[in-house]
Write a structure and sequence with these properties.
four-stranded mixed β-sheet; three-stranded parallel β-sheet; 11 strands; globular
Length: 293
């Protein structure tokens, strides 16, 4: 069975996206402003959280959330060994040390047991990753008594026990890179939280550490979701489940196509939303750095 490696799910939305881009461009408001505020309100309402802070990309979202949670130089941050580089980068750019732990081979996510085994006296935060749309057991991780920043970059729309991915920790972070569940037409990201103080700090940090462009209380970032991307996201947000549908079908096609072949595809969970269908191959011998056995 031939399954495309990449297949656009946005073809039927192109006219609506173009109309929205023209609408936003006509306002002359391109950085933050009412379009971004409207998206933040709508995304927060859909997730059921009080605060959404739109930022430049998912990597910045992680850094800003960790910094707002108090992570700084010399701290340890526990995270999965199986994740994209940006998870570790978010901690390292703050001067913190990424500490890696094992994942559950069935879900590709950390567990309370694997995280507990990696804790150190310097651990300041835990970053579970909702990899491939699987939601990590964040409620169990919160029982460890440390701030939990949920990396939900790949899990917009996923749920765990009826709660949306990104809302289970002290804060959650999202990426709106075009390959993600909720895609923009370029880079974009968000920090979401129910913590008023963390949300206010994240909002300052995305704009040079300022609330009013006059008083600067800390060194922050220049990381703001722009209005054109917010317009695209507002167009696609009501279609999130539909955007996911074709990807889920391709995942089923991958699983069906691997029947009887070595290795196996990851199982599909009812609460999972993802635009990828990972396939785990059979074990093979480790290779040296030069590529030789």
């Amino acid at each position: 069975m031939a399954v495309p490696l990449f297949a656009s799910s946005l073809a039927s939305y192109q006219d609506r996206i173009a109309d929205k881009l023209r609408e936003v461009a006509a306002t002359g408001r391109f950085i933050l402003g009412p379009e971004v505020e409207a998206f933040e309100d709508e995304f927060a309402a859909g997730l059921g959280v009080r605060h959404c802070i739109g930022v430049g990309n998912g990597t910045d979202a992680l850094q800003i959330a960790l910094r707002a949670a108090g992570v700084g130089p010399g701290d340890d941050v526990v995270m999965p060994s199986l994740t994209f580089f940006a998870t570790a980068e978010g901690a390292a750019n703050l001067g913190a040390r990424p500490v890696f732990c094992d994942v559950d081979p069935e879900t590709y996510c950390v567990t309370a047991e694997t995280v507990a085994a990696a804790l150190t006296p310097k651990t300041k935060a835990i970053v579970p990753v909702d990899l491939f749309g699987n939601v990590a057991p964040v409620p169990e991780l919160r029982e460890l008594g440390l701030p939990v920043i949920e990396d939900a970059a790949q899990a917009a729309g996923s749920t765990l026990d009826g709660k949306r991915a990104g809302t289970l920790g002290n804060a959650g972070t999202f990426s709106f890179f075009p390959s993600k569940n909720l895609p923009a037409a370029g880079d974009g990201g968000a920090v979401v939280t129910d913590d008023d103080q963390l949300g206010a700090t994240a909002r300052r940090l995305r704009f040079h550490g300022s609330e009013d462009k006059q008083t600067y209380t800390e060194v922050g970032w220049n990381s703001r979701l722009d209005a054109l991307q917010a317009g695209v996201l507002r167009t696609l947000l009501p279609e999130l489940d539909g955007l996911d549908g074709s990807a889920r079908q391709r995942g089923r096609d991958v699983r069906a196509g691997r029947s009887g072949r070595p290795g196996r595809a990851a199982p599909e969970d009812a609460g999972m939303r993802a635009r990828v269908a990972p396939v785990r191959g059979p074990p093979r011998a480790r290779r040296r750095a030069d590529g030789r056995p």
